[in-house]
Amino acid sequence: MATRQVLADLAEAAEAAGLPRLGIESVGGVDAARRVADGEAFDLVFLARGALEKLRAGAHVGAVTPLMRSQTAVAVPSRDDAPAVYEAGSVAFADAAALREALRGADRIGYSTGPSGVALVEMIERWGLAAELGERLVQARPGIPVARSLAEGEVDLGFQQLSELVGQPGVRILGVLPQDCAIDTVFSGAVAETAEDPEAAAEVLRFFASDRAAPLIAARSFGPAGS
Protein backbone atom coordinates (compact mmCIF):
# COMPACT_ATOMS: atom_id res chain seq x y z
CA MET A 1 0.00 0.00 0.00
CA ALA A 2 2.89 2.38 0.70
CA THR A 3 3.84 2.38 -2.98
CA ARG A 4 0.39 2.79 -4.54
CA GLN A 5 0.76 6.47 -5.43
CA VAL A 6 4.31 6.31 -6.73
CA LEU A 7 3.55 3.18 -8.76
CA ALA A 8 0.60 4.96 -10.35
CA ASP A 9 2.89 7.87 -11.25
CA LEU A 10 5.50 5.51 -12.70
CA ALA A 11 2.93 3.56 -14.69
CA GLU A 12 1.58 6.77 -16.21
CA ALA A 13 5.09 7.92 -17.14
CA ALA A 14 5.95 4.52 -18.63
CA GLU A 15 2.83 4.59 -20.78
CA ALA A 16 3.65 8.12 -21.92
CA ALA A 17 7.07 6.80 -22.95
CA GLY A 18 5.42 4.25 -25.22
CA LEU A 19 5.51 1.23 -22.93
CA PRO A 20 2.53 -1.07 -22.30
CA ARG A 21 -0.23 0.25 -20.08
CA LEU A 22 -0.03 -1.18 -16.59
CA GLY A 23 -3.10 -1.75 -14.43
CA ILE A 24 -2.13 -1.71 -10.74
CA GLU A 25 -4.04 -3.28 -7.86
CA SER A 26 -2.76 -2.08 -4.49
CA VAL A 27 -3.42 -4.33 -1.49
CA GLY A 28 -1.68 -5.09 1.79
CA GLY A 29 1.70 -6.75 1.36
CA VAL A 30 0.70 -9.92 3.21
CA ASP A 31 -2.31 -10.40 0.93
CA ALA A 32 -0.26 -9.61 -2.18
CA ALA A 33 2.41 -12.18 -1.34
CA ARG A 34 -0.20 -14.82 -0.56
CA ARG A 35 -2.04 -14.29 -3.83
CA VAL A 36 1.17 -14.54 -5.86
CA ALA A 37 2.24 -17.67 -3.96
CA ASP A 38 -1.20 -19.18 -4.60
CA GLY A 39 -0.62 -18.85 -8.34
CA GLU A 40 -2.91 -15.94 -9.18
CA ALA A 41 -1.90 -14.52 -12.56
CA PHE A 42 0.05 -11.24 -12.54
CA ASP A 43 2.64 -9.72 -14.84
CA LEU A 44 4.60 -7.74 -12.25
CA VAL A 45 4.79 -7.86 -8.47
CA PHE A 46 5.92 -4.96 -6.24
CA LEU A 47 6.70 -5.65 -2.58
CA ALA A 48 9.34 -5.13 0.06
CA ARG A 49 12.57 -6.76 -1.11
CA GLY A 50 12.52 -9.46 1.56
CA ALA A 51 9.01 -10.56 0.65
CA LEU A 52 9.91 -10.68 -3.03
CA GLU A 53 13.04 -12.72 -2.35
CA LYS A 54 10.87 -15.30 -0.58
CA LEU A 55 8.59 -15.45 -3.61
CA ARG A 56 11.62 -15.84 -5.84
CA ALA A 57 12.88 -18.72 -3.70
CA GLY A 58 9.52 -20.37 -4.30
CA ALA A 59 9.86 -19.82 -8.07
CA HIS A 60 6.87 -17.45 -8.16
CA VAL A 61 8.80 -14.46 -9.53
CA GLY A 62 12.04 -13.83 -11.40
CA ALA A 63 14.99 -11.65 -10.48
CA VAL A 64 14.27 -8.94 -7.92
CA THR A 65 14.96 -5.32 -8.93
CA PRO A 66 15.30 -2.76 -6.08
CA LEU A 67 13.37 0.42 -6.92
CA MET A 68 13.14 2.77 -3.95
CA ARG A 69 13.90 3.14 -0.25
CA SER A 70 11.26 4.18 2.25
CA GLN A 71 12.01 5.54 5.72
CA THR A 72 9.73 4.90 8.67
CA ALA A 73 8.38 8.08 10.21
CA VAL A 74 6.55 8.99 13.41
CA ALA A 75 3.35 11.02 13.60
CA VAL A 76 0.83 12.28 16.15
CA PRO A 77 -2.78 13.42 15.80
CA SER A 78 -3.39 16.98 14.67
CA ARG A 79 -6.50 19.14 14.85
CA ASP A 80 -5.46 20.65 11.55
CA ASP A 81 -7.08 18.88 8.59
CA ALA A 82 -4.50 20.25 6.17
CA PRO A 83 -2.42 17.57 4.39
CA ALA A 84 0.53 16.52 6.52
CA VAL A 85 3.93 17.70 5.31
CA TYR A 86 7.44 16.47 5.98
CA GLU A 87 10.34 18.87 6.33
CA ALA A 88 13.32 17.21 4.67
CA GLY A 89 15.84 16.05 7.24
CA SER A 90 13.45 16.15 10.18
CA VAL A 91 14.11 13.45 12.77
CA ALA A 92 11.42 12.55 15.31
CA PHE A 93 13.69 11.88 18.30
CA ALA A 94 17.30 12.56 19.20
CA ASP A 95 18.22 8.89 19.48
CA ALA A 96 16.94 5.41 20.33
CA ALA A 97 16.85 6.22 24.05
CA ALA A 98 14.48 9.12 23.40
CA LEU A 99 12.28 6.88 21.25
CA ARG A 100 12.08 4.30 24.04
CA GLU A 101 10.92 6.99 26.46
CA ALA A 102 8.29 8.18 23.98
CA LEU A 103 6.98 4.63 23.63
CA ARG A 104 6.76 4.25 27.40
CA GLY A 105 4.85 7.52 27.65
CA ALA A 106 2.32 6.83 24.90
CA ASP A 107 -1.15 5.56 25.73
CA ARG A 108 -1.80 3.88 22.36
CA ILE A 109 0.88 3.13 19.76
CA GLY A 110 -0.16 2.50 16.18
CA TYR A 111 1.83 0.43 13.69
CA SER A 112 1.14 -1.23 10.36
CA THR A 113 0.86 -4.80 9.13
CA GLY A 114 3.64 -4.09 6.61
CA PRO A 115 7.42 -4.40 6.90
CA SER A 116 7.81 -1.23 8.99
CA GLY A 117 5.37 -2.59 11.57
CA VAL A 118 7.09 -5.97 11.70
CA ALA A 119 10.47 -4.30 12.19
CA LEU A 120 9.09 -1.98 14.90
CA VAL A 121 7.69 -4.87 16.93
CA GLU A 122 10.95 -6.79 16.58
CA MET A 123 12.87 -3.75 17.83
CA ILE A 124 10.52 -3.34 20.79
CA GLU A 125 11.07 -7.00 21.65
CA ARG A 126 14.87 -6.58 21.46
CA TRP A 127 14.58 -3.66 23.85
CA GLY A 128 12.61 -5.79 26.31
CA LEU A 129 9.55 -3.52 26.14
CA ALA A 130 7.02 -5.92 24.66
CA ALA A 131 5.48 -6.92 27.99
CA GLU A 132 5.51 -3.35 29.33
CA LEU A 133 3.75 -1.92 26.27
CA GLY A 134 1.43 -4.90 25.90
CA GLU A 135 -2.05 -3.94 24.70
CA ARG A 136 -0.95 -0.37 24.10
CA LEU A 137 0.48 -1.63 20.81
CA VAL A 138 -2.31 -1.35 18.24
CA GLN A 139 -1.83 -2.89 14.82
CA ALA A 140 -3.82 -1.27 12.04
CA ARG A 141 -6.15 -3.50 10.08
CA PRO A 142 -4.73 -4.74 6.74
CA GLY A 143 -5.01 -2.03 4.12
CA ILE A 144 -5.86 0.66 6.70
CA PRO A 145 -3.17 3.36 7.08
CA VAL A 146 -1.90 4.28 10.51
CA ALA A 147 -2.67 7.90 9.59
CA ARG A 148 -6.38 7.10 9.75
CA SER A 149 -5.98 5.57 13.22
CA LEU A 150 -4.23 8.76 14.34
CA ALA A 151 -6.77 11.10 12.77
CA GLU A 152 -9.68 9.17 14.30
CA GLY A 153 -8.12 9.20 17.77
CA GLU A 154 -7.55 5.46 18.02
CA VAL A 155 -3.83 5.94 18.74
CA ASP A 156 -1.73 8.88 19.92
CA LEU A 157 1.63 7.88 18.45
CA GLY A 158 1.92 6.27 15.02
CA PHE A 159 4.69 4.62 13.01
CA GLN A 160 4.50 4.02 9.27
CA GLN A 161 6.26 4.51 5.97
CA LEU A 162 6.87 8.22 5.41
CA SER A 163 5.09 8.04 2.04
CA GLU A 164 1.96 6.79 3.80
CA LEU A 165 1.87 9.77 6.17
CA VAL A 166 2.72 12.64 3.83
CA GLY A 167 -0.40 14.36 2.55
CA GLN A 168 -2.78 12.76 5.06
CA PRO A 169 -5.18 15.01 7.01
CA GLY A 170 -5.44 15.00 10.78
CA VAL A 171 -1.83 14.06 11.49
CA ARG A 172 1.43 15.88 12.20
CA ILE A 173 4.67 14.23 11.12
CA LEU A 174 7.37 14.51 13.78
CA GLY A 175 10.07 13.16 11.47
CA VAL A 176 11.78 9.92 10.56
CA LEU A 177 13.32 7.58 13.11
CA PRO A 178 16.82 8.48 14.35
CA GLN A 179 19.78 6.82 12.68
CA ASP A 180 20.57 4.45 15.55
CA CYS A 181 17.12 2.84 15.30
CA ALA A 182 16.10 3.66 11.73
CA ILE A 183 13.71 1.31 9.94
CA ASP A 184 14.12 1.51 6.18
CA THR A 185 12.33 -0.63 3.62
CA VAL A 186 13.57 -1.21 0.08
CA PHE A 187 10.61 -1.74 -2.21
CA SER A 188 11.34 -3.78 -5.29
CA GLY A 189 9.75 -5.26 -8.38
CA ALA A 190 9.89 -8.58 -10.17
CA VAL A 191 8.33 -10.21 -13.20
CA ALA A 192 5.83 -12.84 -12.14
CA GLU A 193 6.21 -16.38 -13.41
CA THR A 194 2.58 -16.11 -14.56
CA ALA A 195 3.33 -13.08 -16.77
CA GLU A 196 1.57 -13.27 -20.12
CA ASP A 197 4.40 -11.33 -21.83
CA PRO A 198 7.50 -11.53 -19.61
CA GLU A 199 9.66 -9.35 -21.89
CA ALA A 200 7.10 -6.54 -21.99
CA ALA A 201 6.77 -6.73 -18.20
CA ALA A 202 10.56 -6.65 -17.82
CA GLU A 203 10.74 -3.57 -20.06
CA VAL A 204 8.29 -1.72 -17.81
CA LEU A 205 10.27 -2.78 -14.75
CA ARG A 206 13.50 -1.48 -16.29
CA PHE A 207 11.82 1.88 -16.83
CA PHE A 208 10.74 1.97 -13.18
CA ALA A 209 14.39 1.43 -12.16
CA SER A 210 15.81 3.96 -14.62
CA ASP A 211 17.05 7.51 -14.09
CA ARG A 212 13.88 8.76 -15.79
CA ALA A 213 11.85 7.42 -12.87
CA ALA A 214 14.03 8.95 -10.13
CA PRO A 215 12.29 12.38 -9.96
CA LEU A 216 8.86 10.74 -9.64
CA ILE A 217 10.13 8.50 -6.85
CA ALA A 218 11.66 11.44 -4.96
CA ALA A 219 8.44 13.47 -5.33
CA ARG A 220 6.60 10.81 -3.31
CA SER A 221 9.06 10.98 -0.38
CA PHE A 222 11.07 7.90 -1.34
CA GLY A 223 14.85 7.75 -1.68
CA PRO A 224 17.15 5.80 -3.99
CA ALA A 225 17.11 2.06 -3.41
CA GLY A 226 20.89 1.88 -3.11
CA SER A 227 22.78 -1.35 -3.51
UniProtKB/TrEMBL annotation:
Q: Which InterPro entries does UniProt cross-reference here?
A: ModA/WtpA (IPR050682)
| Record-level Gene Ontology MF annotations | molybdate ion binding
As given in the record, the signal peptide range reads: none
Any Pfam family matching the protein:
SBP_bac_11
Q: Which domain of life is it from?
A: Bacteria
**A GO biological process held by the record:** molybdate ion transport
Q: What protein name is recorded for this chain? A: Molybdenum ABC transporter substrate-binding protein
Q: Which organism does this sequence originate in?
A: Leucobacter massiliensis
